[in-house]
Automatic annotation (TrEMBL):
Pfam families: Peptidase_S51. Belongs to the peptidase S51 family. Keywords: Hydrolase, Protease, Serine protease. Transmembrane segments: none annotated. One of its GO terms (molecular function) is serine-type peptidase activity. SUPFAM superfamilies: Class I glutamine amidotransferase-like. This is Peptidase family S51. It comes from the Bacteria. One of its GO terms (biological process) is proteolysis.
């Protein structure tokens, strides 16, 4: 119930959007209405706590997907929530979200899985039991193309995890970084970008993992 603001994320936000404003939340689990509504209420509450008042709030999930153009046209900010990366990615493709975002001129905020699926190429790091050993599980999938950075959030919270008997960092993610550059982000850090200007910067603490070698 707090916004991570150690690197002045809130100040960057208010530079680019005027409050009160209209927010659209894009679900990660499009059929889990209760989970999405709970998350939406948390967003409303915490933004209000920081003086970021909203003029309206909509949710884009399975039930509202037919109104996607209307919902995006109304939004000043779109927030892609966290959750299971492949599930959200599949939903994005089903509703052709990338196409509908082409004329969106507001602020896109990707949170957790939402930040990962914002990339051109998404590394869907295994997280559930069975995903590491499943030969059909796709670890690299197409994303929205809003950033070229392959983002892995919450680094400190999963770096010691074990999935299917494999160390997630050393046994899975290190080998998967061959030929790629991963941005391992600590909570509070973020990518600040402008798609029109084709510029972006990483703000806060993060690590770069490339060809099995990690540097801070």
């Amino acid at each position: 119930m707090e916004l991570h603001n150690e690197y002045h994320w809130v100040e960057d936000l208010v530079k680019h959007v005027h409050f009160p404003c209209h927010v659209l939340l894009v679900a990660s689990s499009p059929d889990d209405i209760e989970k999405t509504r709970h998350y939406a209420q948390e967003i409303v509450d915490v933004m209000d706590k920081h003086g970021l008042c909203l003029s309206g709030f909509d949710i884009l999930d399975r039930s509202s997907a037919k109104r996607i153009k209307e919902l995006i046209d109304k939004a000043d900010i779109i927030i892609a929530m966290g959750g299971h990366v492949p599930t959200q990615n599949t939903f994005f493709h089903e509703i052709d979200l990338k196409k509908h975002l082409q004329d969106f001129n507001g602020i896109w905020i990707g949170s957790s899985a939402g930040s990962m699926n914002s990339a051109t190429l998404v590394y869907a790091q295994p997280e559930l039991e069975g995903e590491v050993i499943d030969p059909t599980y796709k670890r690299f999938v197409r994303g929205l193309g809003l950033t070229k950075k392959i983002i892995l959030p919450h680094y400190s919270s999963w770096k010691n995890d074990v999935v299917d008997g494999f160390r997630l960092l050393e046994d899975v993610t290190y080998p998967d970084s061959r030929g790629y550059v991963f941005y391992l982000m600590e909570d509070g850090s973020y990518v600040l970008g402008d798609t029109e200007e084709k510029i972006e910067e990483v703000v806060g603490e993060y690590y770069i993992l490339h060809d099995g070698v990690m540097i801070q």
